Hints:
Layout: H1 4-40, H2 45-52, E1 66-70, E2 88-93, E3 96-104, E4 108-117, E5 122-132, E6 138-145, E7 147-155, E8 161-170, E9 176-183
Antiparallel strand pairs: 1-6, 2-3, 3-4, 4-5, 5-6, 6-7, 7-8, 8-9
Amino acid sequence: MSNAPYLKNRKKQKKIRNSILGIALLLIAVLTVGIFTFRNYPNNKEDMALSMNDAYVCDTADSNYIPQAKSLLFHPQNNASDRIPSGKVYYQGENGRLESFINRDNIGIREELTSYDEKGNTVDKLEIGYICDTTRHLKCAVIFKNKISIYETKLSADNKNEDIVIEYLISPQMKFSRGKTYTKL
């Protein structure tokens, strides 16, 4: 008997085993790169948006952690202008503070958020709330961590309610930067 078929079969098995080992090593390398990338890239959309804009990427050590708060005009029972207090402080920390003010005029009520640095200097302003008496135009906000989500409902050109959400990020320097805008369905 000849060993030729046995040796041929043995070579074929060795070739298959080497191919499987090569694929396994390649998969291990790809998984390692994937895990490294996942751990070292920003883990949420706010941080990714900040890094893509070459802005300051916040660590947990120096970022503004703002507990979740709704704007003064968020609740329907606050629609009566005499019930809405002015001067709510949403955040007070080592980087500064966020404070809102209510402005009333003959058209409606507006809530404006003002940011101050650690020395008390005004840094930025943003309208985060609006109730109009004559039309169906409402705006309110939710502030959480380092993000402001402004929800706005207004009549579109075809007289249907249009719901828009605009997100702003709050830098450690208390500056507001516009993030994404989308239409709520």
